[in-house]
Amino acid sequence: MGIANTSCIGYCGAAVSGNCYSAHSNPACDNAACCTAVCAADPFCCDTQWDVTCAQFAGFTCQGSPGTCGVTQASCFKAHAQGACDDVSCCTAVCAVDPSCCSQSWDSICVTIATQTCVPGCAPAVEPGSVVETEGCDERANDPCYAATAGIPQSLPINTQMRGTLGRPPSSTNGLDVDVFRVTIPDPDGDGLARVTLEFSSSPQAWAALVPDGTCIPMSASLLHLASNFCVVSSSAAQCIPPGTYSLVVSGGTYPAFGGSDITCIAGNAYTAKVVVAQNCTPCTATAPSCYLPHESAGCNSPACCSAVCANDAFCCEQVWDATCVEAAVAGCLNGAPPYDACSGAAPIAVGTLTLNTGRSQNELPQPSNCGAGAAFARDVWCTYVSDRTGSMELRTCGSWFDTVIAIYTGPCSAPTQVACNDNFTGCPGVGSSKVTFTVQCGQQYFFRVGPKSGQGGDVAITLVAGQSTPCPNCPEDLNNSGSVDSLDIAFLLNAWGTAAGDLTGDGTTSSPDMAVLLNAWGPCN
After folding, report:
1. Residue 112 has pLDDT above 80, yes or no
2. Contact 226, 200 (CB under 8 A)
3. Which among 273, 323, 276, 269 is positioned nearest to 300, based on CA atoms?
4. 462: CB partners within 8 A, 6+ apart
5. Which of 26, 158, 355, 525 could serve as a FRET partner for 287 with CA atoms 20 to 30 Å apart?
6. Above 80 in pLDDT, residue 5?
7. Burial code of 406-419, b = ≥16 C-beta within 10 A, e = fewer?
8. Which 8-state DSSP code applies to residue 136?
9. Dihedral of CA 133/138/141/145: which sign?
10. Rounded to whole angstroms, how far apart are CA atoms 162 and 399?
């Protein structure tokens, strides 16, 4: 076995074949299982040469073992099966970019990152629109107290990257360079808080901290701080703080100690810093999106419901209000069925969009027929339309976040007649969204039944589209929009007697003058 390991170059598993995670001129590599797996996908690696592609594929395919920075005794500049490497600073920087370099194997990609990152004088990435520190590295002009005890902090706009330098002037006996920037954090939404994140990248070992503005505030009072080295961008966890004026302090060394007296005044000893401010600190506000509709932001528009949901699932207020949050809101915040749960309580709809909530609703009718395989309501809500048009119209739930079914009926709620229905409509965006085309007549009342195929659902946008229809003839005396003033309108007016429903004279009451107006308009509408 020892002879094979040292002599059988080009065979899978032979040590002499070379590291699986590094490119070499001969085929195969030293780990038999890894070699076999790679060559099964790319025979070139065992037939001709173990090139860069083979080495990278090994990094993705072959299961390495996790390691710890500084504990793994292998060079950061050579690929190896175990994760991590021997240089703690370099290893930490690389694994911040690619965590698999510590959790799996230190492959050729990790080596590439190390050669680009772990070198003296690396340059932090510069963003478009960044501003430059006005103090040179051989000056002490922006630190009022931490090291030079002189100067005025430079203003740094929020959400704007600052490019600065650290260094000891060649002729200076003061070896410390501390930069201070003044940052004003606004509160446009007026909730008394702003969500702040600190981003920092530095070539030399350095740190940045955000402290309240004032006279020489100690670092123990910092609200946010973080360190960086080898130009890897570090980002703090977001924190909600009161609006106002703050100081961003940048120094060499290890937080909270001011250091870096050995940092020389050269262009390579650079850093970037940015204070990122957002305004979503109070997710449970009336201006947030609906509690019954998934959305990419945290929180929802009912403070009581939002707080109750987030008490059990903090993710809903810290990250995203997803479908799980909606389900919790439906289960915990809705008290009984909605008023439009029954056909008799159908919500009026006109051409346009009406949003209803299906949560806690029940089924009132048997399942629709001729609607496609599997089309069934788990629950339903209702809206109604008295047609003021004639021709072809559309009803749809396109864009719905849950699988919907829709059905259309005429006739009384006690014995409705199905006109049309749809389950999933091809080309209608959304999760199982529906769309149906149906014919309307002037004055005819239609009932629209909408609901989820499963689960509770939540908010659903129901859109009525005019389609290929035209408006009915316009005459106010045609109380039932039939296109003609006739005995049915007299019946309508008599049923509305004493109320405002049949008022044609504008006096606010349906009475004999209104009957006279109706009779004078007898016949087809013009």
Report:
1. yes
2. yes
3. 323
4. 349, 353, 354, 355, 356, 383, 395, 396, 397, 406, 448, 450
5. 158
6. no
7. bbbbeeebeebebb
8. -
9. positive
10. 42
**Calpha distance 411→276 (Å, rounded):** 59
What whole-number distance in Å separates Cα of residue 91 and Cα of residue 117?
Answer: 10
Residue 242: both structure tokens together: 């009161």
213, 244 contact by CB (below 8 A): yes
Q: Extract the tokens encoding 63.
A: 């299961």
pLDDT of residue 3 exceeding 60, the answer is no
Tokens of 357: 């909530």
Query: What whole-number distance in Å separates Cα of residue 264 and Cα of residue 258?
Result: 15
Backbone angles phi and psi of 313, in degrees to 5:
-145, 90
Q: pLDDT of 244-254, one tens digit each?
A: 999 999 999 88
Angle at 90 between CA 85 and CA 91, to 5 degrees: 40
pLDDT at 4: 53
Query: How far apart, in whole angstroms, are the C-alpha atoms of residue 470 and residue 284?
Result: 44
Q: Please give the residue that has the higher pLDDT: either 262 or 303.
A: 303
HEC string of 32-69 equals: HHHHHHHHHHCCHHHHCCECHHHHHHHHHHCCCECCCC
Mean of pLDDT values over 357-377: 91
Please tell me the distance from the alpha carbon of residue 410 to that of residue 446, in angstroms, as a whole number.
5
Cβ pair 356, 332 in contact under 8 A: no
SS (H, E, C) 463-494: EEEEEEEEECCCCCCCCCCCCEECHHHHHHHH
Task: State the Cα–Cα distance between residues 298 and 453, nearest whole angstrom.
Answer: 27
Amino acid at 431: V
Backbone angles phi, psi at 370, to 5 degrees: 55, 45
Average the pLDDT over 54-76 and give the result: 86
Using a 10 angstrom Cβ sphere, with 0-12 exposed, 13-18 middle and 19 or more buried, the burial of residue 508 is exposed
Q: 391, 397, 386, 381: which is closest to 349 by C-alpha?
A: 386
Longest dimension (CA), the chain: 116
Across the chain, mean pLDDT equals 89
Q: Name the amino acid, one letter, at 235.
A: S
Residue 299 token pair: 């929180």
Half-sphere exposure of residue 308, counting CA atoms within 13 Å on the CB side?
15
Q: Please report, for residues 42, 58, 443, 467, the alpha-carbon distance to residue 472 in angstroms, rounded to integers and kept in the order given.
A: 70, 72, 9, 14
CA atoms within 13 A on the CB side of 452: 18
Q: Which long-range contacts (CB under 8 A, 24 or more apart) does 491-496 make?
A: 493/518
Distance of CA 430 to the CA centre of its chain: 17
Query: Residue 228 forms beta bridges with which residues?
Result: 206
Q: Which two tokens stand for residue 477?
A: 């005396």
Supply the Cα-derived Rg of the chain in whole angstroms.
Answer: 36
